[in-house]
Design a protein that fits this description.
Oligomer: single chain
Strand content: 15-25%
Number of helices: 27
Distance between the termini: 44 Å
Number of strands: 14
Shape: globular
Structural class: alpha+beta
Helix content: 40-55%
Largest sheet: 6 strands, mixed
Length: 633
Protein backbone atom coordinates (compact mmCIF):
# COMPACT_ATOMS: atom_id res chain seq x y z
CA UNK A 1 0.00 0.00 0.00
CA UNK A 2 1.54 3.32 -1.02
CA UNK A 3 1.95 6.31 1.28
CA UNK A 4 -1.12 8.24 0.08
CA UNK A 5 -3.38 5.22 0.41
CA UNK A 6 -2.14 4.64 3.95
CA UNK A 7 -2.76 8.24 4.92
CA UNK A 8 -6.36 8.26 3.73
CA UNK A 9 -7.20 5.54 6.25
CA UNK A 10 -6.49 8.02 9.07
CA UNK A 11 -8.13 11.04 7.52
CA UNK A 12 -10.84 11.31 10.16
CA UNK A 13 -8.21 12.49 12.64
CA UNK A 14 -7.71 15.52 10.43
CA UNK A 15 -11.45 16.03 10.13
CA UNK A 16 -11.82 16.04 13.90
CA UNK A 17 -8.79 18.33 14.29
CA UNK A 18 -9.99 20.96 11.85
CA UNK A 19 -13.38 21.07 13.58
CA UNK A 20 -11.61 22.27 16.74
CA UNK A 21 -9.80 25.25 15.20
CA UNK A 22 -12.51 27.90 15.22
CA UNK A 23 -12.74 29.29 18.72
CA UNK A 24 -11.74 32.95 18.55
CA UNK A 25 -12.75 35.19 21.43
CA UNK A 26 -11.36 38.13 23.34
CA UNK A 27 -8.33 37.55 25.55
CA UNK A 28 -5.72 39.74 27.21
CA UNK A 29 -2.72 40.72 25.18
CA UNK A 30 -1.00 43.71 23.65
CA UNK A 31 -0.68 45.67 20.45
CA UNK A 32 3.05 46.15 19.91
CA UNK A 33 4.26 49.08 17.80
CA UNK A 34 7.66 48.35 16.23
CA UNK A 35 9.37 51.48 14.93
CA UNK A 36 12.68 51.42 13.09
CA UNK A 37 14.91 54.44 12.53
CA UNK A 38 17.90 54.47 10.19
CA UNK A 39 20.98 56.63 10.55
CA UNK A 40 24.73 56.77 11.07
CA UNK A 41 26.05 55.15 14.21
CA UNK A 42 26.98 57.80 16.73
CA UNK A 43 25.11 60.59 14.92
CA UNK A 44 21.66 60.89 16.56
CA UNK A 45 20.66 63.78 14.32
CA UNK A 46 20.96 61.57 11.22
CA UNK A 47 18.21 59.14 12.22
CA UNK A 48 14.87 59.09 10.44
CA UNK A 49 11.87 56.80 10.85
CA UNK A 50 12.01 54.30 7.97
CA UNK A 51 9.64 51.53 9.03
CA UNK A 52 6.74 51.09 11.43
CA UNK A 53 4.43 48.20 12.05
CA UNK A 54 1.85 47.07 14.59
CA UNK A 55 1.45 43.45 15.63
CA UNK A 56 -1.05 41.84 18.00
CA UNK A 57 0.30 39.51 20.67
CA UNK A 58 -1.65 37.17 22.89
CA UNK A 59 -0.69 37.03 26.54
CA UNK A 60 1.89 34.31 27.14
CA UNK A 61 2.23 33.35 23.46
CA UNK A 62 5.53 33.73 21.62
CA UNK A 63 5.11 35.35 18.19
CA UNK A 64 7.70 36.03 15.50
CA UNK A 65 7.64 39.12 13.29
CA UNK A 66 9.98 39.95 10.40
CA UNK A 67 10.68 43.63 9.73
CA UNK A 68 13.56 45.69 8.34
CA UNK A 69 16.59 43.33 8.60
CA UNK A 70 15.58 41.36 11.69
CA UNK A 71 13.25 38.81 13.15
CA UNK A 72 11.75 39.82 16.48
CA UNK A 73 10.42 37.13 18.78
CA UNK A 74 8.17 38.59 21.49
CA UNK A 75 6.27 37.01 24.39
CA UNK A 76 4.14 39.34 26.55
CA UNK A 77 3.20 38.64 30.15
CA UNK A 78 0.50 41.10 31.15
CA UNK A 79 0.74 41.92 34.88
CA UNK A 80 -2.13 44.39 35.10
CA UNK A 81 -3.74 47.17 33.09
CA UNK A 82 -0.56 49.29 33.26
CA UNK A 83 2.41 46.89 33.19
CA UNK A 84 3.64 44.13 30.93
CA UNK A 85 6.81 42.03 30.85
CA UNK A 86 8.15 41.52 27.33
CA UNK A 87 10.54 38.64 26.66
CA UNK A 88 12.36 39.63 23.47
CA UNK A 89 14.80 38.06 21.05
CA UNK A 90 15.98 40.04 18.01
CA UNK A 91 18.23 38.39 15.40
CA UNK A 92 19.32 40.01 12.15
CA UNK A 93 19.71 38.48 8.69
CA UNK A 94 22.87 36.78 7.41
CA UNK A 95 25.68 37.03 6.52
CA UNK A 96 26.65 38.45 9.94
CA UNK A 97 23.73 37.92 12.33
CA UNK A 98 23.49 40.13 15.41
CA UNK A 99 21.45 39.23 18.47
CA UNK A 100 19.65 41.25 21.15
CA UNK A 101 18.13 39.32 24.06
CA UNK A 102 16.15 41.28 26.66
CA UNK A 103 13.38 40.97 29.19
CA UNK A 104 11.73 44.33 29.72
CA UNK A 105 9.21 45.51 32.29
CA UNK A 106 7.30 48.12 30.32
CA UNK A 107 4.52 50.52 31.13
CA UNK A 108 1.40 50.68 29.01
CA UNK A 109 1.80 52.91 25.90
CA UNK A 110 5.37 53.87 26.90
CA UNK A 111 8.01 53.67 24.17
CA UNK A 112 11.37 52.11 24.99
CA UNK A 113 14.60 51.64 23.03
CA UNK A 114 15.32 47.97 22.34
CA UNK A 115 18.71 48.30 20.67
CA UNK A 116 20.80 49.16 17.64
CA UNK A 117 21.83 46.79 14.82
CA UNK A 118 24.12 47.25 11.85
CA UNK A 119 22.59 47.45 8.37
CA UNK A 120 25.22 48.24 5.70
CA UNK A 121 28.54 50.03 5.84
CA UNK A 122 28.25 52.59 8.66
CA UNK A 123 24.48 52.70 8.73
CA UNK A 124 22.42 51.19 11.55
CA UNK A 125 18.83 50.61 12.59
CA UNK A 126 17.55 51.70 15.98
CA UNK A 127 14.54 49.70 17.15
CA UNK A 128 11.85 51.17 19.43
CA UNK A 129 8.89 49.29 20.93
CA UNK A 130 5.62 50.59 22.33
CA UNK A 131 3.20 48.10 23.95
CA UNK A 132 -0.48 48.86 24.39
CA UNK A 133 -2.29 46.51 26.79
CA UNK A 134 -5.69 45.54 25.45
CA UNK A 135 -8.02 42.70 24.69
CA UNK A 136 -7.09 41.00 21.43
CA UNK A 137 -8.95 38.47 19.39
CA UNK A 138 -7.62 35.06 20.24
CA UNK A 139 -6.42 33.36 17.05
CA UNK A 140 -8.69 30.76 15.51
CA UNK A 141 -5.69 28.47 15.20
CA UNK A 142 -3.87 26.85 18.09
CA UNK A 143 -1.19 25.03 16.09
CA UNK A 144 2.37 25.01 17.40
CA UNK A 145 4.81 24.12 14.66
CA UNK A 146 7.75 24.43 17.07
CA UNK A 147 6.79 21.20 18.83
CA UNK A 148 8.91 18.94 16.61
CA UNK A 149 8.29 15.95 18.91
CA UNK A 150 4.52 16.06 18.47
CA UNK A 151 3.03 13.06 16.68
CA UNK A 152 0.66 15.41 14.85
CA UNK A 153 3.43 16.67 12.56
CA UNK A 154 5.24 15.05 9.69
CA UNK A 155 7.97 16.26 7.39
CA UNK A 156 9.45 15.24 4.07
CA UNK A 157 12.53 16.71 2.38
CA UNK A 158 13.04 17.64 -1.23
CA UNK A 159 16.20 19.00 -2.85
CA UNK A 160 15.78 22.53 -1.46
CA UNK A 161 12.92 22.33 1.10
CA UNK A 162 11.81 20.61 4.25
CA UNK A 163 8.03 20.43 3.90
CA UNK A 164 6.26 20.28 7.27
CA UNK A 165 2.54 19.62 7.66
CA UNK A 166 -0.07 17.97 9.85
CA UNK A 167 -0.46 14.26 9.44
CA UNK A 168 -3.55 13.36 7.39
CA UNK A 169 -4.14 16.96 6.35
CA UNK A 170 -4.88 18.00 2.79
CA UNK A 171 -1.25 19.07 2.43
CA UNK A 172 -0.18 15.57 3.46
CA UNK A 173 -2.32 14.04 0.71
CA UNK A 174 -1.13 16.55 -1.91
CA UNK A 175 2.53 16.54 -0.87
CA UNK A 176 3.92 15.29 -4.20
CA UNK A 177 2.18 18.06 -6.17
CA UNK A 178 3.23 20.68 -3.63
CA UNK A 179 6.84 19.52 -3.71
CA UNK A 180 6.82 19.74 -7.49
CA UNK A 181 5.59 23.33 -7.44
CA UNK A 182 8.15 24.43 -4.83
CA UNK A 183 11.06 22.87 -6.68
CA UNK A 184 9.83 24.32 -10.00
CA UNK A 185 9.84 27.81 -8.51
CA UNK A 186 13.33 27.32 -7.12
CA UNK A 187 14.54 26.04 -10.51
CA UNK A 188 13.16 29.12 -12.28
CA UNK A 189 15.18 31.41 -9.99
CA UNK A 190 18.30 29.27 -10.32
CA UNK A 191 18.18 29.36 -14.12
CA UNK A 192 18.04 33.18 -14.17
CA UNK A 193 20.24 34.06 -11.20
CA UNK A 194 22.66 31.14 -11.25
CA UNK A 195 22.79 30.44 -7.53
CA UNK A 196 22.55 27.15 -5.70
CA UNK A 197 21.30 26.68 -2.18
CA UNK A 198 23.35 24.27 -0.02
CA UNK A 199 21.41 21.19 1.10
CA UNK A 200 22.24 22.12 4.71
CA UNK A 201 20.31 25.35 4.22
CA UNK A 202 16.98 23.95 2.98
CA UNK A 203 13.95 26.16 3.50
CA UNK A 204 11.48 25.02 6.13
CA UNK A 205 8.15 25.16 4.30
CA UNK A 206 5.13 24.93 6.61
CA UNK A 207 1.80 24.00 5.01
CA UNK A 208 -0.86 24.87 7.56
CA UNK A 209 -4.63 24.44 7.60
CA UNK A 210 -4.97 27.70 9.57
CA UNK A 211 -2.94 30.79 10.50
CA UNK A 212 -0.71 29.78 13.39
CA UNK A 213 -0.17 32.56 15.92
CA UNK A 214 3.57 31.95 16.22
CA UNK A 215 4.24 34.14 13.17
CA UNK A 216 2.83 37.45 11.94
CA UNK A 217 0.98 36.86 8.66
CA UNK A 218 1.32 39.10 5.63
CA UNK A 219 -2.29 39.55 4.54
CA UNK A 220 -1.25 40.61 1.00
CA UNK A 221 -0.12 37.08 0.19
CA UNK A 222 -1.47 35.11 3.17
CA UNK A 223 2.01 33.98 4.20
CA UNK A 224 4.29 34.26 7.20
CA UNK A 225 8.04 34.71 6.80
CA UNK A 226 10.96 34.18 9.14
CA UNK A 227 14.00 34.69 6.88
CA UNK A 228 16.41 34.58 9.81
CA UNK A 229 15.43 30.96 10.50
CA UNK A 230 14.73 30.25 6.83
CA UNK A 231 11.02 29.53 7.38
CA UNK A 232 7.96 30.18 5.28
CA UNK A 233 4.38 29.54 6.38
CA UNK A 234 1.54 29.16 3.88
CA UNK A 235 -2.15 28.29 4.15
CA UNK A 236 -3.23 25.03 2.58
CA UNK A 237 -6.76 23.83 3.22
CA UNK A 238 -9.80 23.06 1.13
CA UNK A 239 -10.89 26.64 0.48
CA UNK A 240 -7.73 28.71 1.07
CA UNK A 241 -4.31 28.16 -0.47
CA UNK A 242 -1.37 30.55 -0.59
CA UNK A 243 1.09 28.14 -2.16
CA UNK A 244 1.25 30.46 -5.20
CA UNK A 245 2.56 33.41 -3.16
CA UNK A 246 5.96 34.97 -3.96
CA UNK A 247 7.26 33.82 -0.58
CA UNK A 248 9.91 31.46 -1.98
CA UNK A 249 11.51 34.33 -3.89
CA UNK A 250 11.38 36.63 -0.87
CA UNK A 251 13.05 34.06 1.34
CA UNK A 252 15.73 33.17 -1.22
CA UNK A 253 17.05 36.70 -1.62
CA UNK A 254 16.84 37.64 2.05
CA UNK A 255 18.94 34.57 2.81
CA UNK A 256 21.41 34.96 -0.06
CA UNK A 257 21.79 38.73 -0.40
CA UNK A 258 20.59 40.00 2.98
CA UNK A 259 18.45 43.07 3.58
CA UNK A 260 17.35 45.65 1.04
CA UNK A 261 14.43 48.11 0.98
CA UNK A 262 11.15 46.41 0.00
CA UNK A 263 11.13 47.95 -3.48
CA UNK A 264 14.26 45.89 -4.21
CA UNK A 265 13.77 42.83 -1.98
CA UNK A 266 10.12 42.23 -2.92
CA UNK A 267 10.76 43.37 -6.46
CA UNK A 268 13.35 40.67 -7.09
CA UNK A 269 11.41 38.09 -5.04
CA UNK A 270 8.40 38.55 -7.34
CA UNK A 271 10.50 38.45 -10.50
CA UNK A 272 8.26 35.92 -12.30
CA UNK A 273 4.94 37.55 -11.49
CA UNK A 274 3.77 39.06 -14.85
CA UNK A 275 4.49 42.39 -13.17
CA UNK A 276 4.92 44.30 -16.45
CA UNK A 277 1.40 43.34 -17.47
CA UNK A 278 -0.16 44.30 -14.14
CA UNK A 279 1.79 47.58 -14.00
CA UNK A 280 0.48 48.49 -17.45
CA UNK A 281 -3.03 47.86 -16.10
CA UNK A 282 -2.28 50.20 -13.18
CA UNK A 283 -1.19 52.88 -15.62
CA UNK A 284 -4.29 52.37 -17.78
CA UNK A 285 -6.59 52.69 -14.75
CA UNK A 286 -4.67 55.72 -13.41
CA UNK A 287 -3.56 53.91 -10.24
CA UNK A 288 0.17 54.10 -10.97
CA UNK A 289 2.28 56.01 -8.44
CA UNK A 290 5.81 57.48 -8.81
CA UNK A 291 8.64 55.25 -7.63
CA UNK A 292 9.95 57.93 -5.23
CA UNK A 293 6.97 57.06 -2.99
CA UNK A 294 8.19 53.47 -2.68
CA UNK A 295 11.83 53.96 -1.67
CA UNK A 296 11.42 53.85 2.12
CA UNK A 297 9.78 50.85 3.78
CA UNK A 298 7.29 52.97 5.74
CA UNK A 299 6.14 54.78 2.57
CA UNK A 300 6.02 51.47 0.68
CA UNK A 301 3.65 50.01 3.30
CA UNK A 302 1.34 53.03 3.07
CA UNK A 303 0.65 52.60 -0.65
CA UNK A 304 -2.10 50.34 -2.05
CA UNK A 305 -0.60 46.91 -1.57
CA UNK A 306 -1.01 45.64 -5.12
CA UNK A 307 0.37 48.87 -6.60
CA UNK A 308 3.56 48.84 -4.52
CA UNK A 309 4.23 45.18 -5.26
CA UNK A 310 3.55 45.16 -9.01
CA UNK A 311 5.50 48.36 -9.67
CA UNK A 312 8.48 47.15 -7.63
CA UNK A 313 8.59 43.81 -9.44
CA UNK A 314 8.24 45.44 -12.85
CA UNK A 315 10.92 48.08 -12.20
CA UNK A 316 13.38 45.53 -10.81
CA UNK A 317 12.76 43.17 -13.72
CA UNK A 318 13.43 46.05 -16.11
CA UNK A 319 16.72 46.88 -14.34
CA UNK A 320 17.90 43.25 -14.42
CA UNK A 321 17.03 42.75 -18.09
CA UNK A 322 18.27 46.14 -19.31
CA UNK A 323 21.37 46.74 -17.19
CA UNK A 324 22.51 43.21 -16.29
CA UNK A 325 22.06 41.19 -13.14
CA UNK A 326 25.46 42.01 -11.63
CA UNK A 327 24.60 45.72 -11.47
CA UNK A 328 21.31 45.02 -9.74
CA UNK A 329 23.00 42.71 -7.24
CA UNK A 330 25.46 45.50 -6.45
CA UNK A 331 22.56 47.93 -5.92
CA UNK A 332 20.71 45.43 -3.70
CA UNK A 333 23.73 44.88 -1.48
CA UNK A 334 24.63 48.57 -1.33
CA UNK A 335 21.29 50.32 -0.73
CA UNK A 336 19.44 51.08 2.48
CA UNK A 337 16.12 52.90 2.76
CA UNK A 338 17.73 56.33 3.12
CA UNK A 339 20.59 55.74 0.67
CA UNK A 340 18.68 54.08 -2.17
CA UNK A 341 18.52 57.23 -4.29
CA UNK A 342 22.27 57.75 -3.95
CA UNK A 343 23.05 54.05 -4.56
CA UNK A 344 21.04 54.09 -7.79
CA UNK A 345 23.13 56.99 -9.14
CA UNK A 346 26.38 55.34 -8.09
CA UNK A 347 25.55 51.99 -9.70
CA UNK A 348 23.73 53.10 -12.85
CA UNK A 349 25.22 56.57 -13.34
CA UNK A 350 21.63 57.80 -13.74
CA UNK A 351 19.14 59.16 -11.25
CA UNK A 352 15.85 57.52 -10.34
CA UNK A 353 13.79 59.92 -12.47
CA UNK A 354 15.76 59.03 -15.62
CA UNK A 355 15.49 55.28 -14.97
CA UNK A 356 11.78 55.63 -14.24
CA UNK A 357 11.21 57.34 -17.61
CA UNK A 358 13.15 54.57 -19.38
CA UNK A 359 11.11 51.94 -17.58
CA UNK A 360 7.77 53.52 -18.49
CA UNK A 361 8.88 53.91 -22.11
CA UNK A 362 9.86 50.23 -22.14
CA UNK A 363 6.45 49.22 -20.80
CA UNK A 364 4.65 51.00 -23.64
CA UNK A 365 5.95 48.52 -26.17
CA UNK A 366 6.11 45.43 -23.96
CA UNK A 367 3.76 42.45 -24.05
CA UNK A 368 4.10 39.19 -22.14
CA UNK A 369 3.94 35.93 -24.06
CA UNK A 370 0.89 33.69 -24.09
CA UNK A 371 3.07 31.02 -22.47
CA UNK A 372 3.70 33.27 -19.45
CA UNK A 373 -0.03 33.94 -19.08
CA UNK A 374 -0.91 30.27 -19.37
CA UNK A 375 1.67 29.30 -16.78
CA UNK A 376 0.42 31.78 -14.20
CA UNK A 377 -3.22 30.92 -14.94
CA UNK A 378 -2.46 27.22 -14.48
CA UNK A 379 -0.86 27.97 -11.10
CA UNK A 380 -3.96 29.92 -10.07
CA UNK A 381 -6.17 27.04 -11.23
CA UNK A 382 -4.11 24.49 -9.31
CA UNK A 383 -4.61 26.56 -6.16
CA UNK A 384 -8.32 27.03 -6.95
CA UNK A 385 -8.02 30.80 -7.32
CA UNK A 386 -10.58 30.74 -10.09
CA UNK A 387 -11.39 34.46 -10.07
CA UNK A 388 -7.73 35.32 -10.60
CA UNK A 389 -7.50 32.78 -13.42
CA UNK A 390 -10.60 34.28 -15.06
CA UNK A 391 -8.99 37.75 -14.90
CA UNK A 392 -5.87 36.41 -16.61
CA UNK A 393 -7.84 34.69 -19.38
CA UNK A 394 -9.93 37.82 -19.92
CA UNK A 395 -6.74 39.87 -20.22
CA UNK A 396 -5.43 37.34 -22.73
CA UNK A 397 -8.55 37.77 -24.86
CA UNK A 398 -8.02 41.52 -24.83
CA UNK A 399 -4.38 41.11 -25.89
CA UNK A 400 -4.50 38.18 -28.29
CA UNK A 401 -8.05 38.16 -29.62
CA UNK A 402 -10.64 35.36 -29.54
CA UNK A 403 -8.13 32.52 -29.51
CA UNK A 404 -9.90 29.11 -29.19
CA UNK A 405 -7.47 27.91 -26.50
CA UNK A 406 -8.11 30.98 -24.36
CA UNK A 407 -11.87 30.70 -24.85
CA UNK A 408 -11.82 27.04 -23.87
CA UNK A 409 -9.77 27.79 -20.74
CA UNK A 410 -12.12 30.60 -19.77
CA UNK A 411 -15.17 28.40 -20.35
CA UNK A 412 -13.75 25.59 -18.23
CA UNK A 413 -12.73 27.91 -15.40
CA UNK A 414 -16.25 29.35 -15.21
CA UNK A 415 -17.58 25.78 -15.18
CA UNK A 416 -15.41 24.80 -12.21
CA UNK A 417 -16.35 27.91 -10.21
CA UNK A 418 -20.06 27.31 -10.78
CA UNK A 419 -20.79 30.17 -13.20
CA UNK A 420 -22.65 28.03 -15.72
CA UNK A 421 -24.15 30.83 -17.83
CA UNK A 422 -20.72 32.30 -18.51
CA UNK A 423 -19.28 28.86 -19.11
CA UNK A 424 -21.99 28.07 -21.66
CA UNK A 425 -21.42 31.38 -23.44
CA UNK A 426 -17.74 30.71 -23.99
CA UNK A 427 -18.22 27.04 -24.88
CA UNK A 428 -20.80 28.06 -27.48
CA UNK A 429 -18.35 30.57 -28.91
CA UNK A 430 -15.49 28.11 -29.17
CA UNK A 431 -17.85 25.43 -30.53
CA UNK A 432 -18.88 27.76 -33.36
CA UNK A 433 -15.38 27.41 -34.79
CA UNK A 434 -15.10 23.67 -34.10
CA UNK A 435 -18.62 22.27 -34.44
CA UNK A 436 -17.63 18.60 -34.14
CA UNK A 437 -15.52 18.94 -30.98
CA UNK A 438 -16.63 16.14 -28.65
CA UNK A 439 -15.35 17.81 -25.48
CA UNK A 440 -17.31 20.99 -26.11
CA UNK A 441 -20.49 19.14 -27.03
CA UNK A 442 -20.25 16.90 -23.97
CA UNK A 443 -19.66 19.73 -21.51
CA UNK A 444 -22.48 21.77 -23.06
CA UNK A 445 -24.68 18.74 -22.43
CA UNK A 446 -23.55 18.77 -18.81
CA UNK A 447 -24.32 22.49 -18.48
CA UNK A 448 -27.80 22.04 -19.93
CA UNK A 449 -28.42 19.22 -17.48
CA UNK A 450 -27.16 21.30 -14.56
CA UNK A 451 -29.58 24.07 -15.58
CA UNK A 452 -32.48 21.60 -15.85
CA UNK A 453 -32.78 21.77 -19.65
CA UNK A 454 -32.91 18.00 -20.00
CA UNK A 455 -34.13 17.78 -23.60
CA UNK A 456 -31.31 20.02 -24.79
CA UNK A 457 -28.81 18.06 -22.70
CA UNK A 458 -29.99 14.82 -24.31
CA UNK A 459 -29.48 16.28 -27.79
CA UNK A 460 -25.88 17.19 -27.01
CA UNK A 461 -25.15 13.71 -25.64
CA UNK A 462 -26.78 12.09 -28.66
CA UNK A 463 -24.67 14.29 -30.92
CA UNK A 464 -21.54 13.12 -29.13
CA UNK A 465 -22.47 9.46 -29.62
CA UNK A 466 -23.32 10.02 -33.26
CA UNK A 467 -19.75 11.27 -33.74
CA UNK A 468 -18.08 8.70 -31.50
CA UNK A 469 -19.96 5.51 -30.60
CA UNK A 470 -17.34 4.68 -27.94
CA UNK A 471 -17.80 7.86 -25.87
CA UNK A 472 -18.60 6.10 -22.57
CA UNK A 473 -19.43 9.21 -20.51
CA UNK A 474 -22.17 10.31 -22.93
CA UNK A 475 -23.95 6.94 -22.63
CA UNK A 476 -23.78 7.17 -18.85
CA UNK A 477 -25.23 10.68 -18.85
CA UNK A 478 -28.08 9.57 -21.14
CA UNK A 479 -28.78 6.68 -18.79
CA UNK A 480 -28.86 9.05 -15.80
CA UNK A 481 -31.30 11.30 -17.63
CA UNK A 482 -33.50 8.30 -18.37
CA UNK A 483 -33.52 7.20 -14.73
CA UNK A 484 -34.31 10.72 -13.54
CA UNK A 485 -37.14 11.09 -16.07
CA UNK A 486 -38.57 7.64 -15.40
CA UNK A 487 -37.64 6.28 -18.85
CA UNK A 488 -36.13 3.13 -17.37
CA UNK A 489 -36.09 1.05 -20.55
CA UNK A 490 -34.13 3.70 -22.41
CA UNK A 491 -31.75 4.09 -19.47
CA UNK A 492 -31.20 0.31 -19.31
CA UNK A 493 -30.53 0.21 -23.04
CA UNK A 494 -27.82 2.87 -22.74
CA UNK A 495 -26.18 1.06 -19.84
CA UNK A 496 -26.22 -2.27 -21.68
CA UNK A 497 -24.65 -0.54 -24.68
CA UNK A 498 -21.82 0.89 -22.62
CA UNK A 499 -21.21 -2.52 -20.96
CA UNK A 500 -20.01 -3.69 -24.35
CA UNK A 501 -17.36 -0.97 -24.53
CA UNK A 502 -13.92 -0.86 -22.95
CA UNK A 503 -14.45 0.91 -19.64
CA UNK A 504 -12.49 1.85 -16.52
CA UNK A 505 -13.38 1.35 -12.87
CA UNK A 506 -15.33 4.61 -12.56
CA UNK A 507 -17.52 3.77 -15.55
CA UNK A 508 -18.06 0.20 -14.33
CA UNK A 509 -19.11 1.55 -10.94
CA UNK A 510 -21.64 3.88 -12.57
CA UNK A 511 -22.94 1.19 -14.96
CA UNK A 512 -23.78 -1.28 -12.22
CA UNK A 513 -25.01 1.43 -9.86
CA UNK A 514 -27.37 2.64 -12.61
CA UNK A 515 -28.59 -0.89 -13.38
CA UNK A 516 -29.15 -1.47 -9.67
CA UNK A 517 -31.28 1.68 -9.46
CA UNK A 518 -33.33 0.60 -12.48
CA UNK A 519 -34.01 -2.89 -11.12
CA UNK A 520 -34.89 -1.43 -7.73
CA UNK A 521 -37.46 0.88 -9.34
CA UNK A 522 -38.82 -2.13 -11.27
CA UNK A 523 -39.26 -4.07 -8.01
CA UNK A 524 -36.58 -6.66 -8.86
CA UNK A 525 -34.78 -6.66 -5.52
CA UNK A 526 -32.41 -9.57 -6.18
CA UNK A 527 -31.14 -8.15 -9.48
CA UNK A 528 -30.84 -4.70 -7.90
CA UNK A 529 -28.74 -6.08 -5.04
CA UNK A 530 -26.50 -8.07 -7.40
CA UNK A 531 -25.75 -4.98 -9.46
CA UNK A 532 -25.20 -2.79 -6.40
CA UNK A 533 -22.69 -5.37 -5.13
CA UNK A 534 -20.84 -5.23 -8.45
CA UNK A 535 -20.79 -1.43 -8.25
CA UNK A 536 -19.27 -1.71 -4.77
CA UNK A 537 -16.61 -4.08 -6.10
CA UNK A 538 -15.47 -1.68 -8.81
CA UNK A 539 -15.79 1.40 -6.58
CA UNK A 540 -13.17 -0.06 -4.26
CA UNK A 541 -10.74 -0.36 -7.14
CA UNK A 542 -11.63 3.19 -8.24
CA UNK A 543 -10.54 4.50 -4.82
CA UNK A 544 -7.30 2.53 -4.93
CA UNK A 545 -6.60 3.94 -8.39
CA UNK A 546 -7.20 7.61 -7.46
CA UNK A 547 -6.83 7.78 -3.70
CA UNK A 548 -6.17 11.53 -3.52
CA UNK A 549 -9.32 12.61 -5.42
CA UNK A 550 -12.81 13.19 -4.02
CA UNK A 551 -15.03 11.55 -6.68
CA UNK A 552 -13.87 7.96 -5.98
CA UNK A 553 -14.90 8.36 -2.33
CA UNK A 554 -18.26 9.76 -3.36
CA UNK A 555 -18.84 6.77 -5.64
CA UNK A 556 -17.72 4.31 -2.98
CA UNK A 557 -20.02 6.00 -0.47
CA UNK A 558 -22.92 5.75 -2.91
CA UNK A 559 -22.15 2.06 -3.45
CA UNK A 560 -22.20 1.38 0.30
CA UNK A 561 -25.42 3.39 0.64
CA UNK A 562 -27.09 1.30 -2.07
CA UNK A 563 -26.25 -1.98 -0.33
CA UNK A 564 -27.58 -0.63 2.98
CA UNK A 565 -24.29 -0.01 4.81
CA UNK A 566 -25.08 3.54 5.84
CA UNK A 567 -22.28 4.09 8.36
CA UNK A 568 -19.67 3.02 5.82
CA UNK A 569 -21.32 5.28 3.27
CA UNK A 570 -21.09 8.27 5.62
CA UNK A 571 -17.42 7.54 6.29
CA UNK A 572 -16.55 7.75 2.61
CA UNK A 573 -18.86 10.69 1.95
CA UNK A 574 -16.98 12.50 4.73
CA UNK A 575 -13.67 11.88 3.00
CA UNK A 576 -15.14 13.23 -0.23
CA UNK A 577 -16.38 16.28 1.69
CA UNK A 578 -12.87 16.78 3.08
CA UNK A 579 -11.37 16.74 -0.43
CA UNK A 580 -13.98 18.40 -2.67
CA UNK A 581 -14.34 22.16 -3.10
CA UNK A 582 -15.76 22.47 -6.64
CA UNK A 583 -19.32 23.76 -6.13
CA UNK A 584 -21.10 21.31 -8.45
CA UNK A 585 -19.44 18.21 -7.03
CA UNK A 586 -19.42 19.43 -3.45
CA UNK A 587 -23.16 19.87 -3.76
CA UNK A 588 -23.48 16.22 -4.79
CA UNK A 589 -21.38 15.13 -1.80
CA UNK A 590 -23.38 17.22 0.67
CA UNK A 591 -26.66 15.94 -0.75
CA UNK A 592 -25.43 12.38 -0.37
CA UNK A 593 -24.50 13.06 3.25
CA UNK A 594 -27.91 14.59 3.91
CA UNK A 595 -29.62 11.53 2.47
CA UNK A 596 -27.44 9.20 4.53
CA UNK A 597 -28.12 11.04 7.79
CA UNK A 598 -31.84 11.12 7.01
CA UNK A 599 -31.67 7.35 6.49
CA UNK A 600 -30.16 7.10 9.99
CA UNK A 601 -32.98 9.32 11.34
CA UNK A 602 -30.46 11.99 12.30
CA UNK A 603 -32.77 14.83 11.29
CA UNK A 604 -30.67 17.70 12.64
CA UNK A 605 -27.54 16.65 10.75
CA UNK A 606 -29.49 15.91 7.58
CA UNK A 607 -31.08 19.39 7.63
CA UNK A 608 -27.69 21.05 7.94
CA UNK A 609 -26.38 19.26 4.87
CA UNK A 610 -29.49 19.87 2.76
CA UNK A 611 -29.38 23.56 3.65
CA UNK A 612 -25.70 23.73 2.72
CA UNK A 613 -26.53 22.28 -0.71
CA UNK A 614 -28.85 25.23 -1.32
CA UNK A 615 -26.02 27.66 -0.53
CA UNK A 616 -23.98 26.41 -3.51
CA UNK A 617 -24.38 26.88 -7.29
CA UNK A 618 -25.46 23.27 -7.75
CA UNK A 619 -27.50 21.69 -10.50
CA UNK A 620 -31.28 22.12 -10.63
CA UNK A 621 -31.75 18.40 -9.92
CA UNK A 622 -29.71 18.57 -6.70
CA UNK A 623 -31.39 21.81 -5.65
CA UNK A 624 -34.89 20.38 -6.09
CA UNK A 625 -34.03 17.22 -4.16
CA UNK A 626 -32.54 19.21 -1.26
CA UNK A 627 -35.63 21.43 -1.13
CA UNK A 628 -37.89 18.38 -1.26
CA UNK A 629 -36.02 16.71 1.58
CA UNK A 630 -36.18 19.83 3.72
CA UNK A 631 -39.93 20.08 3.18
CA UNK A 632 -40.32 16.47 4.28
CA UNK A 633 -39.21 17.19 7.85
Amino acid sequence: MNRTKFKIVLIFLALLFTMSLDHGYGASGIILDISVKEGLSGDSASFELTDQNEIRLLNGVETVSFQANFTLSATPTVLDSEKVILTLSLITLPPKPQTILREVLSKNKKTFFLGEVKVKEKRVFRVYLTPEITDVIEPECDLDTRDKESEDWDELPSAHFFFRYLLNSLADLHWAKIKGYGETEYKRFREIFGFTQPAMDRMEYFLLPCRASEVVWDDRFDIGLDPVKNKIFVIYNLFERSLDSPGVGFLLFYRLWGYAPPILAEGIGGYFSLSHHFTKKLIATKRWIPLKRLLIARDYREQPKDVAFWESCSFVRFLVKTYRLDKFELLYKKATDLTLDQAIEEVYQKNLTTLEKEWLSFLEGYQDTMRDFYYLASVKMDNHHYDQAVELYQDMLNLYGRDPGILRSLAYTHYLKGDYDQSEKYYQEVLSGDTLNLEYLYILGNIKRIKGEYNKAEKYYQKVISLDTTYVEAYLKLANLGIANGDLLSAKEHLEQVKGLETKNQAKTEIYSGLGSIYKKLGKAKKAQDNFEKALFYARFFVIEFSDRPIPYLKLGEAFFNVGEIDSAINFFKIAEFLEDRPLYRGKVLLALGNAYQEKNDTAEAKLYFQEVLNLPVGLEERKEAEKRLRSF
